Amino acid sequence: QPALSNKSRKKKKKRKTKKSSAEETLEDNDLENIDNLLEKIEGTNGLSQETQSGIIADSRPLLYVEHRNLNPENELKRYFGARAVLGDQRPRQRQRQNVRGTWLTTPDNSWPRYTSTGITMQLLETRRGVQYFTFEHHRKYQQVQLLFLKNIESMDPNSVVPLLQALEPYHVDSLLLLSDAYRMQEDQEMARELVEQALYSLECSFHPLFSLTSGTCRLDYRRPENRSFFLALFKHMMLLEKRGCPRTALEFCKLILSLDPENDPLCVLLLIDFLALRAREYTFLTRMFQEWESHRNLSQLPNFAFSVPLAYFFLSQQEERSELELSQAREKAAQLIQLALIMFPSVLMPLLDHCSVQPDARVASHSFFGLSAQISQPPALNQLTSLYVVRTHSLWKDPAVMAWLETNVNEVLHMVDAQDPLVEDSEHKRKIRYQSAPRNIYRHIVLSEIKEAMAALPPEVTSQPVMGFDPLPPLDSIISYTRPERTNHPSNESTLSLFFRSLLPNFNLQGDMRHDGDEEAGAGHDLNQGVNSLMAAMRDMLANIQFLEPPRDDNPEGDGEWD
């Protein structure tokens, strides 16, 4: 009997060994097949039913956010394969210890251990199925925040580094400020990591009922405690787009818009069309235009006026659609692009110029699209058109797109020569509207850092300091605790100089320029010296920073108290 039992045990061990090897094979197969899985999911795209017009519609809310689309690794896997992104690591090796599971970012083991930072989220009220939340700063965090503001106002940018090191390694505004400094030094990797740490800290403070995906959770930008979350999401979205992850960036853009769709404090409506086109989410863009045009007048924004017909054009090129769908998409694209050219004629020539395309003699000599169209447009419209052309001109360089655009430009010139009433009506609307832009558009232009649009900002914006951690705060802010007043420096400095001052408050371009001609390079030298000293201090801090580890159960010596 003992001999038989030993044999049975050996057989069981062999079976377990075979089973474990089979599990390893399955894990490898999962890694190999993950690309096919994602492609199938992307192909269906969660779309469920067809409309009569042939354009596929989604039964879920427009701003519904999917968790899997918030992870840039999933998008990179589709482009380069799972092996290239994950390497030879097995899933168990990729598990991270001692960190919370989050959706917005993937925390790294090298990050400081997260403890209570003094930020919490509270549910204020629920109205008509919509929940209104707000972040709150406890006394500990308030003291750090006031010290941060004091250091910024005291013209000492280096004081931010010891604040992170000694007091609060997850102080959100400090992380965002340092991220901007690294980005100015073209260290995109470090800039991205600092923004992700800020998002990780804020997500760990979420209320249990706060949902990223429902589209029914709101945050009020007028409260300073909420602005850091908006700005961290926006900066993360821009870094993702530059990283080559437009689909993930689009999902973050939808998330930002869902937090306050009525006011849109960062005006992401000026950007969402570009991300949708880059991510080839044409159906989402056309659906958004159909659902929001009636109450948001999206066609009055140049970016939607031109991007939506471009999306219909791309849909008309998809061979898997029926002939009826292709015909309807072509007709809709032609109709909308002609309306856009009539309403915003000043877009065409700069767009062709950025695409390095020479217009034909008839278009170049016609006054409708000529220089007078750009000179006569209101300043606010000039900001919007400059923003759109610089941001999206690369999407128009395709030869098929240019041929389609040329055909419709000639059709518009026929309408202009025939004195179509629509042309005169559009000109009248341009003169009445776009006289001044709301503050959220100015805030978007400052955050986007597109110099052509920033050059058109009005003096009331360029004459005040623009802080990178809180650009152009709302005039009706809801202050929950006392903050030191900002020192205004009215001057004729450029927006770029004021942006440098927000990062390096001791930088003074005007003071250097008042000296003799031999000291003209003083401003640039002072900027480089200040930035380099700040970078050196931050790198030294990040290299030497040490954080206490909590006592573990298996460590008999860890009897000390850890906070």
Please explain how this structure is put together.
This protein has 25 helices and five strands. It is mainly α. Among the domains are: 61-83 and 117-267, Alpha Horseshoe (Serine Threonine Protein Phosphatase 5, Tetratricopeptide repeat), CATH 1.25.40; 281-437, no CATH class. The strands form two sheets. The protein has a three-stranded mixed beta sheet with strand order 3-4-5. The chain is globular. It starts with a helix and ends in a 19-residue tail after the last helix.
Poorly predicted spans: 16-28, 37-57, 90-98, 509-523, 545-563
C-alpha end-to-end distance: 59 Å
- Spatial strand order of the main sheet: 3-4-5
Shape descriptor reads globular
Q: Can you give the mean pLDDT? A: 80
* CATH class membership of one domain: Mainly Alpha
As a percent range, the share of helical residues equals 55-70%
**Quick one: CATH superfamily of one domain?**
Tetratricopeptide repeat domain
Write the H/E string, N to C: HEEHHEEHHHHEHHHHHHHHHHHHHHHHHH
Taking the sheet with the most strands, its summary is: 3 strands, mixed
Percent in strands: under 5%
> From the helix content, strand content and strand pairing, which structural class follows?
mainly alpha
Number of strands: 5
CATH topology of one domain: Serine Threonine Protein Phosphatase 5, Tetratricopeptide repeat
Quickly count the helices. Answer: 25
* Architecture per CATH nomenclature, i.e. the level-2 architecture of one domain: Alpha Horseshoe
If you compute it from the alpha carbons, what radius of gyration comes out, rounded to the nearest whole angstrom?
28 Å
GO cellular component, one term: RQC complex
Pfam families: Tcf25
Organism: Centropus bengalensis (lesser coucal)
Protein name: TCF25 factor
